[in-house]
Amino acid sequence: MHRTGPTDDIDESELTVTPPKARAAGLRAVGVALGRAVSDMGVARTARTLTRVNQVHGFDCPGCAWPEPTGHRRPAEFCENGAKAVAEEATLNTVGPEFFAEHSIADLADKSGYWLGRQGRLTHPMVVRPGDTHYSPISWESAYRLIADQLRDLDSPDQAVFYTSGRTANETAFLYQLLVRSFGTNNLPDCSNMCHESSGAALTSSIGIGKGSVTIDDFAAADLILVAGQNPGTNHPRMLSALADAKKAGARIIAINPLPETGLINFRDPQTVRGLTTGVDIADDFLQIRLGGDMALFQGLAKLLFEAEDRAPGTVLDRAFIDAHTAGFADYERHIRAVDLDTVGTATGLTRAQLEHTAALLARSENTIVCWAMGLTQHKHAVATIEEVTNLLLSRGMIGKPGAGVCPVRGHSNVQGDRTMGIWEQVPESFLAALDHEFGITSPRAHGYDTVAAIRALRDGRARVFFGMGGNFVSATPDTAVTEAALRGCALTVQVSTKLNRSHVVHGGTALILPTLGRTDLDVQNGARQQVSVEDSMSMVHLSTGRLDPVSPQLRSEVAIVCELARELLGADHPVPWERFRADYDRIRDAIARVVPGCADYNARVRQRNGFVLPHPPRDAREFRTGTGRANFAVNELSWVPVPPGRLVLQTLRSHDQYNTTIYGLDDRYRGVHHGRRVVLVHADDIAELGFRDGDLVDLVSEWTDGVDRRVEGFRLVGYATPRGNAAAYYPETNPLVPLDHVAERSNTPVSKAVTIRLEPHVHRHESR
Going by C-beta distance under 8 Å and a sequence separation of 6 or more, which residues neighbour residue 433? Predict the structure, then answer.
């Protein structure tokens, strides 16, 4: 067993704070990436692995969903955080039966998520039964039998919840939903429910499809790009290269965010000599908006565009597009003309001059793209906000032409592909009918549980089995105490995982860990090497091929796990050819081609150099498959997030040394935070006004309508350039503050970007995780 993972856990007393960095990427990023990779994988494995990331015949990065270039690909087609993600997966560190014999569950439950994840790759199926203090080994056959017995003992299939993370490939996702629906439920919550569900709801209503309308090539054709509620320097670093290329082609870029982010200030492209020496100032303008003020911003900009149209009729609004392709414009216009710009200023914290300058840029632009991420989607009024983004673009005809459109930037690799393959608790009837016709099954029609509804069902005893296909459910979800209690109340919890995480130590009466192959691993079935496919954030589908020898012969592919479990649960006479699918992934893709819209001739098209792009009617033909047959303007009453006296509004966010719930290290160097994570970023004037000093230790207590005080303890106050009244801190440490029922209207997404908190002096350190 090779081990270089940490033996000690996080010591927050070592935390230091320095001024934020003025530049992103560059030589420092190269050094950090290579250092982390060599430490985890060794020199030879690093060379074999990093040269294949995001290459045509390589594997798709297990990090973000940013697309690959359609033309020339660089030799190093990855970013610093992508290298960290690969190193985490391809590490030589292992966690086997001897590790679990040494560490009790109680011991592991005391460790941080960072420590757990850094121990290495899981190597054997493990089980804990009622009364056990340690996980112990179990055979694959016994594990499948245990799961099948528990599922068959349920009063109803709806008492089981089948979660999925975005890491799951298309082939696995398709088979997983097929297994779940064959079993008899639509309880298929996934990580989309917690991130871009608001985007899907808004875009489906507005333009008839819940996906972005731009491709990577559109960035070079845009003359104006708005990046709202997004930090690409940390969350999607390769996006900075696309933005830098757009700048070189003449685009103007506006950053809209509560925090100044280094990646949008100055980006030093490590792929070019000039990039390393001079860098690119990505954002021409920075609109430092208050949390929850984006809806007001886009309504205010729309009002200013109407006023500009009044001054110069026929030069601002695209009347031909509006008349030919949209519905509801008259009601939208009446509503927007009544918007009060003083209220917009209060809600956004922006000056009239900033609003007018931005509106003037929009009015002059021939090709506008608006990008966004969690900063827009995780608010109570998130769906309405994204509808306002779409309204603004529709009014200027910025859908369905090169260099223009909506661009929700998805997080986890293949989270969009999971939804395309049917991972959705409310998949449309047309999909179910095609599935039933293909396989001779009868899928359930009643909608299932999304993530928040699943936690409620587990909490209330209406669900008794939780099955997690990847991810770290406990650390990804809101209201941590409620979620943990819900999972501990299960009869059975199952986690299909590559690495140890918090969800393995917060478990049901019986619990299983099933170790699986990762993207980097060689997958051989019946003597033949297999490939999987993924969909990126811009609807491009391509193959991914791992080549590393697995760290343990006990690892099984996700496809194999689904198929083998299905045989045990559903029986050998089930009409789905599970064994054939397990043996040859091409056969899965043949079935996908017959069931999933836009996937005809899947096996041939996915083998093209760049794969293939899925159809998008608004982008491809200005065709809008909505109830009206047109793109719909939405009318939304203005909503924003006021700050109560003596309180702050908190957003949860990632550090630069993490991706989603995976903590790579303890340095957020762009923001100047080192050797720790328990910090809360607050404006210096707010710190003083609330009676504290920079550096004080405080407890954060969230306040919501249910009257429950949710608390996290021992956070260091850091004076930072936030808007007045706003604060920021890392998740998952602050997930306990997000109430389970504080969700976005119409999407049920947890509101993690607008949590009202108060600060209290920290009296004693509470060591719970």
Answer: none
Measure the N-to-C terminal CA separation of the chain; round to a whole number of Å: 28
pLDDT tier, 81 (very low <50, low <70, confident <90, very high otherwise): confident
CA proximity to 225, closest of 196, 248, 197: 248
Boundaries of every domain in the chain: 25-89, 121-130+140-194+414-613, 197-408, 648-761
Torsion 269-271-275-277 (CA) sign: positive
pTM of the complete model:
0.97
Alpha-carbon span 571 to 180, nearest angstrom: 14
User: In this structure, are residues 724 and 733 in contact, taking their beta carbons and an 8 Å threshold?
Assistant: no
pLDDT of amino acid 357 = 98
Q: CB of 523 within 8 A of CB of 530?
A: yes
Report residue 24's pLDDT band, with 50, 70 and 90 as the boundaries: confident
Calpha distance 302→351 (Å, rounded): 16
Instruction: Give the tens place of pLDDT for each residue, 673-717.
Output: 999 999 999 999 999 999 999 999 999 999 999 999 999 999 999
What is the distance of C-alpha 153 from the center of its chain?
Answer: 34
Q: Kindly tell me if the per-residue pLDDT of 765 is higher than 80.
A: no
pLDDT digits (tens, 9 = 90+) for 569-592: 999 999 999 999 999 999 999 999
Q: What is the pLDDT of residues 234-256, one digit of tens each?
A: 888 889 999 999 999 999 999 99
Neighbours of 672 (CB within 10 A): 18
- What is the three-state SS of 501-545? CHHHCCCCCEEEEEEECCCCECCEECCEECCEEEECCCCEEEEEC
Q: Which fold has domain 197-408?
A: Dimethylsulfoxide Reductase; domain 2 (3.40.228)
In the numeric block, the tokens 């009044």 are attached to 310
Query: Cβ distance 264 to 282 under 8 Å?
Result: yes
Instruction: Kindly tell me the burial class for residue 71, based on how many C-beta atoms sit within 10 Å of its own C-beta (0-12, 13-18, 19 or more).
Output: exposed
Strand pairing partners for 700? 712, 759
Q: What is the spatial distance between Cα 584 and Cα 604, in angstroms, rounded to a whole number?
A: 15
Indicate the DSSP class of residue 736.
Answer: G
Sign of CA dihedral 61, 78, 659, 49: positive
Name the amino acid, one letter, at 41: M
DSSP string, 411-461: -BTTHHHHHHTT--TT--HHHHHHHHHHHT-----S----HHHHHHHHHHT
| Strand partners for 632 | 327
Read off φ and ψ for residue 326, nearest 5 degrees. -130, 165
Tokens representing 700 are 């954060």
Q: How far apart are CA 84 and CA 90, in angstroms?
A: 10
Half-sphere exposure of 526 (CA within 13 A, CB side): 8
Amino acid at 478: P
Average pLDDT over the chain reads: 95
| CATH topology classification for 648-761 | Barwin-like endoglucanases (2.40.40)
Q: pLDDT category, 767, cuts 50, 70, 90?
A: very low
State yes or no: pLDDT of 669 exceeds 60: yes
The structure tokens listed for 739 are 């109430």
Contact call for residues 506 and 488 (beta carbons, < 8 A): yes
d(CA 277, CA 26): 8
Phi/psi class of residue 224: alpha, beta or left (left: φ > 0; alpha: ψ in -120 to 50)? beta
Helices of type H across 118-167:
140-152
Q: Please, which residues bridge with residue 701 across strands? A: 711, 758
Residue 615, pLDDT > 90, answer: yes
Q: How far is CA 200 from its chain centroid? A: 13
Q: Which CATH class is domain 121-130+140-194+414-613?
A: alpha beta
For residue 467, the SS3 value is strand
What pLDDT is attached to residue 25? 80
pLDDT at 769: 45
Distance CA 747, CA 382 (A): 8
351/328 Cα distance (integer angstroms): 30
Tokens 């979660």 correspond to 163
